[in-house]
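Form 7-S
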Amino acid sequence: MRLRHPARLGTAALVLSLTAVGCASGGSGSSDGEAAAARKTTVTSCGKKLGFDGPPKRAVALDQSSTEVLLALGLQDRMAGTSNLKTKIAPEYRAAYDGVKVLSPKILTSEQLRAAAPDLAVGGFADYFTKDRVGTREELAELGLPSFVSAVDCPKRNTVDGRARTPFELLFKDYADLGKAFGVEKRAEKLVKEQRATLAGAAKTKKRVKGEPSVVWLYSVYGDTPYVAGRSAMPSEMSRVVGARNAFDDVDEDWPQVSWEEVAKRKPDFIVLGDLSERGKPGDSAEDKLKAVRANPVMAKLPAVRKKRFIEIPGTEMDPSVRTVSALPRLVTGMEDLGYVR
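Output:
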């Protein structure tokens, strides 16, 4: 869940830090030679054009999703820092991540951002760029700091001939745009190709699914309040890809707060439990969620609960990130085990 963090933008200090960027050292991160030569590049991010006179050398990631995308593109040597980790870094990126400075384990403040002397701020969501966090995108642009926001968080600005792109297409656009900005286009193309193959493999399942089973994606439980995937969350698209239907597809939100009674009313055929146990809060683990589901008298009567129709998936893979496609094979295997796939 995205929570506000009080912070005000220190304009004067940020100007001084940004001025120092030209003197700051940064690795090239370009063993393949793609970004060896400085060149002017322009990409569009969430409706704003970002111009680069050369590949960024001191990028700051504002969340785990952005961190892992940059690491997947082999850009650890051009990262001035990371922040706001929800869980452990994926094993395949751990060695690269260990060489990057952690500016904050929580949401970054404006003071922490400016202290890193960045030349690019990358965030998975637009609401990291507010006055009470690192500053608005307009404020940062005035100070010479471009900001990149994932296309997944602004789908209406990323249509093709008036047609909305799928969430996965928006993710692939992020890889391509960041690849272009950093001069590592070939790496981005390789990443897109690999993830398209996983997506295509999962899509073949649709022909083998019996009917269109409905699913509730349970992301968080705070107290006795469940948060589930709505229509604009990534799991809604994942459901469609494999031939299932998100039971809360009629709610145009990412993760709406609902009631157990509302979940039971939807009568899902099965339930996906998001495991965020590494975050360490009550209700985060899949086990905690399962206990909450079974403890509720209304939910306990559901056939999905009585017949133990549950699939466990890492919660991080339910958010838009370089890890999201990894949830698809898990989902398919779970549906096969539950008998929904022929």
